[in-house]
Write a structure and sequence with these properties.
This protein has 295 residues and is α/β, with parallel strands linked by helices. It folds into two domains: 77 residues, Alpha-Beta Plaits, CATH 3.30.70; 168 residues, 3-Layer(aba) Sandwich (Rossmann fold). Strands 10-9-8-11-12-14-13 form a seven-stranded mixed β-sheet, sandwiched between helices. A four-stranded antiparallel β-sheet has the order 2-3-1-4, covered by helices on one side. A three-stranded mixed β-sheet has the order 5-6-7. Helix 1 packs across helix 2 and helix 4 packs parallel to helix 5. It is globular and about 55 Å long.
């Protein structure tokens, strides 16, 4: 059984709400509706505790200076659903930049050079979300550059979901070895399956990890020249030092999972060790490309 927590949020309070609820509600996001209202959504396996929800909201309002008095929320019980089957039912082949994304059970034979087969699932990453599309577009831009210093031979996808971004990177950087980490066990199973059906498993290392931390010996001998992380703003900011430690000077860091108003919040955390090269925006969502400035 799944429970859906939902409540309205003022735009100015979005970051504070995400930060306050992140530890207790991992599967959460804020979206803007067609009438320009913002809503927080969270999904969990146990019914949210009323006192916890109200306390977290009060803490968020203390941080943002917002109004904590008129707080109303809704909890909906969702029926048991085979989300894998439902996602597969609605997922049709589509293009992102030069990539064709194809559900694995589609009876479609393509000669497209950059076709990625994906099993729709509970793991994030069917390719439909703006942040995934933004990352693929920036990865394509990076690959168009004739040479990189340092050369891109090792890539990390942190919070890989279905490994769709790792697979796209595998197509674009054909000589690279790719590591994919995710905190969720289901994502690891799905990522391994997707790497296998896309014939990339020999180049992939996939493991269940919550941070990109590496022992010092591995950092020095096996740095990542390109790191991709499409998760939430607060975890990204918390990982900034680990990202810096596993990358060489001039290594590239691609970050997404961000609402456009979170850009100052995130950039404040990365500005000391990374230089912002450029960013892309799609709707309310943002992706940012950084270069590491120090050894």
């Amino acid at each position: 059984m799944t429970f859906h927590l939902r409540f309205a949020v003022h735009e100015a309070d979005c970051q504070a709400v995400l930060d306050a609820f992140a530890l207790h509600f991992a599967n959460s996001a804020i979206f803007r509706t067609a009438d320009s209202l913002w809503y927080y959504h969270a999904y969990c396996d146990t019914r949210p505790n009323q006192g916890l929800v109200e306390t977290l909201y009060q803490l968020a309002m203390l941080k943002s200076g917002g109004d904590a008095d008129n707080f109303h929320y809704h909890i909906e019980t969702l029926p048991a659903t085979n989300w894998l089957a439902e996602n597969q039912k609605h997922l049709k082949p589509f293009l992102i930049d030069r990539f064709m994304i194809i559900p694995n059970d589609t009876n479609l034979h393509v000669s497209h050079q950059k076709a990625i087969k994906i099993n729709g699932s509970l793991a994030f990453g069917t390719g439909k979300h703006a942040t995934t599309q933004l990352c693929i577009k920036i990865l394509t831009q990076i690959a168009k550059k004739q040479s990189h210093n340092p050369p891109i031979t090792r890539i990390l996808d942190m919070g890989c979901g279905t490994a769709i971004l790792a697979l796209a990177a595998g197509h674009l950087f054909k000589q690279s070895q790719i590591t994919a980490y995710d905190i969720a066990k289901d994502s690891i199973i799905i990522s391994r399956n997707n790497a296998r059906i896309n014939h990339m498993m020999p180049r992939f290392t996939i493991a269940q990890k919550s941070t990109p931390y590496q022992p010092r010996s591995q950092r020095n001998s096996r740095p990542y020249q390109l790191v991709i992380a499409n998760i939430l703003a607060e975890p990204l900011k918390q990982m900034r030092l680990d990202f810096a430690r596993i990358m060489p000077k001039n290594g590239l860091l691609l970050l997404s999972g961000l609402l456009h108003q979170q850009r100052p919040f995130l950039h404040h955390g990365f500005g000391q060790k990374f230089q912002l090269l450029h960013y892309k925006k799609q709707g309310d969502w943002l992706a940012m490309l950084y270069r590491k400035t120090s050894a």
